[in-house]
Request: fold
Amino acid sequence: MDDGLEPAGSAEPTVRVGALHALMYCERLFYLEEVEELRVADAAVFAGRALHEEIAREEGDRVERFTLESGALGMRGQLDAIRRRDGQWIPYEHKRGRPRRDSAKKAEAWETDRIQVAAYAMLLEEAVGEPVREGRLRYHKEDVTVRVAIDDDLRREVHAAVQRARELRRFVDRPPVTANDRLCLRCSLAPVCLPEEERLAREPDWQPVNLSVLDDERESLHVVSHGTRVGRSGEELVVTPLEGEKTKFPIRTLGHLVLHGGSQVTSQAIHLCVEHEVAVSWFTGGGRFVGTIGSNGPAVQRRVRQFRALSDEATCLALAKRLVLGKVEGQLRYVLRATRTAPSKREAVEGAVEGMRRVLRQVAHAPDLSTLLGHEGEGASRYFSAWAGMLDPAVDERLRYTGRSRRPPRDRINALLGFGYALLLKDVTAGLLAVGLEPALGFYHQPRSSAPPLALDLMELFRVPLVDMAVVASIHRGQWSPEEDFVVTGEKVWLSDQGRKKIIDVYERRKAEEWKHSVVGYSLSYGRMIELEARLLEKEWSGSPGLFARFRLR
Ligand code: SF4
Reply:
């Protein structure tokens, strides 16, 4: 059984034949899949699985997929089929696509497939104790079968590939992206590998192709009503309110399950979410973010690299400066944009604008993190001092900005901002977990609260575009009822159930909006941008630094 568990002191684990196929395609692909255990079940992968299921159905009991393993060969693999032809055993491998064509248009096997079928042949001959001299590849798109002679040269290539796979498994650092960029166009791991962004980091004139779009349609499911229960039925989540009809959500349509206040979830439903890499987050009834679970493999190498990099003070300071520059510049650009067409508003924010510009000039010279924190605090205070002047005079007095207040919020706009930032924090935390980073180890924020410092770091880039701008725009659209959307108790202001549902909707809509990333040059949703920046952050210490926190609002 291949349960991935190796007892301490056991021999080196065998290499999957499927992994050799990946290795021959691209060493980095092998490393991401086998060492970092990153898998992306995209349409091609699902189609491949469907093909194998279909073949098994069509061929009934004449086909038996079975697993062979050899410690001597250092490999294990699951054969699609074997046949006895003219007294010889022949392994078959089914492929969804087309064969390669030589110059005379004759069908031949792709190099990756040749190695794969040869590896199966070698496993088979060891199992049956007689030579296997041929393997066959069935390319279903053209309904063509290609025969591969298993000769000594090919066997040597398989041995060399196993050796290389074993070497790579011992590396902590990822191999570089392939020099053949055309391979990346068809690679299922391109959305997590980000080869185009890595080429851009090395060659500033590179024009990246967007290979990062992945499951963009997956949505967040917020369960807000008290007593609502989330359970599982097959591959669906079933949401059952205290009163009313249940609703079913196929797990493949979801990216995040968010449980607010007194809602509940069964362990079977959590199991389904973890299995499908759907993050699960919890909020208290008062709107405080409690935590997130996510799953993307054990991520040991990614965390080792993160700990190594973020143990270095100079690295932390350099990243923190870039982060603060990005944050304050974003705040400044927003204030300028919001007051662009109204001279009276622009006049009202002039002092704040000048203050933020001064902070930007100081950031590069900050000698340490505490000085930088001081500059950032000054920038934030200047920024929020502009808010009173940015809102339209027609806005209801009760929705006007009177100063920043956090726990507890003392006015309605702070209640909206506070909950919006909490929603952002859960997405940033989930994004970090999806990338395999440890949210608790940051480079700027210190672990003073229950919020994970790296998530607090990363969210600085998104406060303005995802929360501030969305909240102000919703106020200007007249979306809020000062009476019904808020609960005022003494000096504290909370969101009512209705208000909370509304701000979730405002936030999620904003997250789905597409925006052209000013560095990579392609458009993607803000939700995807969080994950992209988390991946670019990881590249800062994984061989391709320079792109994290560079994007700017227009
Ligand atoms: S995207 Fe390109 S570089 Fe990255 S793993 Fe795939 S083929 Fe290799």
Summary: DSSP finds 20 helices and 21 strands in the chain. The longest strand covers residues 88-95.
